[in-house]
Amino acid sequence: MSIIELIIGLTAGFLGGGALSYFLWNKALNSKKARIIAEAQAEGEVIKKDKILQAKEKFLQMKADHEKYIHEKSADVNERESQLKQKDNQLNQRREELNKKQKEFETQKREVEIIKENLNVQLQRVEHKSEEVEKMYRQQLEKLEQLSGLSAEEAKAQLVESLQEEAKAQAISYINEIMEEAKLTANKEAKKIVVKSIQRLATETAIENAVTVFHIESDEIKGRIIGREGRNIRALEAATGVEIVVDDTPEAIVLSAFDPVRREIARLALHQLVTDGRIHPARIEEVVAKVKKQIEEEIIETGKRTTIDLGVHGLHPELIRLIGKMKYRSSYGQNLLQHSREVANLSAIMAAELGLNPKKAKRAGLLHDIGKVPDDEPELPHAVLGMKLAEKYKEKPDICNAIGAHHDEVEMQSLLAPIVQVCDAISGARPGARREIVESYIKRLKDLEDLALSYPGVMKTYAIQAGRELRVIVGADKLTDQETEQLSYDISKRIQDEMTYPGQIKITVIRETRAVSYAK
Fold it and tell me: Alpha-carbon distance 266 to 238, whole Å?
């Protein structure tokens, strides 16, 4: 019964005021208590039974775990016992083997002692024999000294001297054979590498002229270009520095200048002026200034495109600009940029054939003529100037040396230098690569031959290979071999000092002796 029911019952009892009511309520209350107690006892019995069951289950589980643990321990103990027995058996087996080996060792030891005793006996015999041989050797030596009249030291010295002379002669002969074989092999391998490099490279031939022909649609435009009293053409020549030749050639104007950049500026400016139609001095100056800026941008773009095509990276922006300027320069009629690209590719191929770094060789080949396109014109050879520019813009020392040494102005310090020099000569000597005016070419060859003929003792001279080799024939009765070498040096020095020529010239002085007799 709840507290609320109890309170209600008590209140009803008191309010009822009757004893009967109280008695009945009390009886009901006692009955309720008895029922509650019985229910509590029954519930307690159930809980007790559950707890007992749980305790039994836990006991059985613990018992099973204990038995399992005992079983596992027993298995481990059995396994360890078996392992110990196995190890014991192994130890016994090893002990038996050691005993057996010990017996064998003792047997061998006794045998060695017997052999040692025998060796001692034999050694004593050998010592006795060697003493007898030494005594006989001294006796024979004394007899030889008496017969020859020389002491042992003197005879030994003579023998050593004769052997030295013989060995020296054989060594000189052997060295000469090796050198001859090396020369033949070196020439063969060098030719093979050069031919392979040239065959693997195909570069277009570009020849520059000193004039540019500007085509126009009609001759009426010529008058507009000339302007009133020639003011337009004078303004254009003053702005560009190019001589503009307007003659009777139909629909064409000739732009003449030795600077290709100026010619290109004049050509582009004329093209824009003719297209626009407004041609007067002020407009000419405006267009020329605009075209100069465009050319400068194109120069930089050409330099970048060239370095990307060749795979040369990390160049200073100023060097890239100078590479772009090569497009508008020529050397003996050969376009400088095409020449530099060809030298770069040849150098890379040749360096790869020789097991060197092809990237460095290509970089040096591309930059080798950079001294021909500076913004100012100092009084320095272009190779030395190019080397100084490369040093200024932080190129590596071996690349700078290759640039400066490709015409022998500075001493070569790495293998890159001769590779660049050879590839420069190959590119310049390629048929059709360079050209000269016929008269000046013939005059240069004649001057070469006359210069060599001016020396005493020279009989004939021949300029061959387009003036790249000079052969000088001297009289054998007039000059000695030493004087011939000096003559070759003197001629080369005088050519360097007095003449202007592309590349290098090889001077070969030939001196031969002829013996003539007649059979009658």
Answer: 11
